[in-house]
Specification:
165 residues, alpha+beta, Thiol Ester Dehydrase, Chain A, 7-stranded antiparallel β-sheet, globular, Thioesterase superfamily protein, HotDog_dom_sf
Amino acid sequence: MTGLVPGRRRIGCDASGQPLSGRVDAQRRFHIVFRADADDIDELGHVNNATWVVWIQDACVAHWFASARPADPVTYVAVVLRHEVDYRGNIRAGETTTAITWVEGTPRGARYARRVEFLDSEGRPLVTALSQWALVEKATGKLVRVPSEVSAPFISDEAERSLDD
């Protein structure tokens, strides 16, 4: 696979190429805050739908960088297959939203599902998403089955218990 596009910000990273910061909770969910800037606002005065999709991807990839074993981001990259987004509310320039993302269930072959919830300052849902992702081996550019050791840092204890049942 080829490298990054020059001059373009890497998904899940800031302008300098460093992974976006957030925190991982006890259920292995990743929490990150986004602030709406003037460029994110549409003619209705709130965050444009395309910006929400960028934030979905940024949250998911930042989670990958925060939780993956050190060698995994060097070996693999995830690609989006599908986003389903439900819009329930919005924010305006200068306001913030907290995104919480997690891997739902366990991977099936190369595919896995991710949930993302954006909450307002009072914890109410603004936007929710279910995304389908697939794992690609960087050296070959081909889809690969998600190894259990790669998914382990993202799978909640509840999901692991359901596998044992």
